[in-house]
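Prompt: May I have another protein with tokenized structure?
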Amino acid sequence: MFNYEIIKNLNELELTLYRYIMKNIDKVIYMTIRELADEAHVSTTTILRFCKKLNCEGYSEFKVRLKMELQNNQSIDINNDTSAIIDFLKKLDNDEIDDKMNSICDLINEANNIVFIGSGTSGILCKYAAIYFCALGKIAMYIDDPYFPTNYKFCESSVVIVLSVSGENADIINNISNLKRENSTIVSITNSSNSTIAKISDLNISYYVKEEKIGVSDITTQIPVLFMIESIGKRFHSKYLADKN
């Protein structure tokens, strides 16, 4: 309801009103417009203008939407069902995924570098993946902040492994475009093969679990990604590094 685009267009009085509402949201849903004006020290005109900026016809609609949002946030049921993970592990036992994992190992062996890229929880897994591959004997790097200034030349002829649940992160997609110009091979691990990142990758593995969010925060399980990172790493070590140790 209060997204960035709306908040940045609020004037000082409206921001004062916004701060009061966010601190007293449980009370505001029962207040009249006059009561809110007195408590927040603004005019009823300011409140109506505020409601209009939130695309509400008036104060009554604003209160209804505010109450609905409050109820939605209070009634979030976090799924703790392990059946999706078990189903994913069962789906791994097929020739297509097996062939893809072997192909990724071949690409890693032929590449100058491995670069893992992602943001948020995927960014955290990128760091883990880089450490994991280094421990196995293959130097790897990670980019967990798509806004970080990057000299893409160092990624020339690299295998770039992109981790993204939604596969729709615009900043990651821009990074991929820059990396492709440096003759990098793009491998992606996403939740769906229909996502933009999956479609522009040279090779994609998708795991298809139910996406979960609390507000704007993505809490979709990352267990399939973690499993695939380790599985690819172990395959690569057995295929190309075990005999050298």
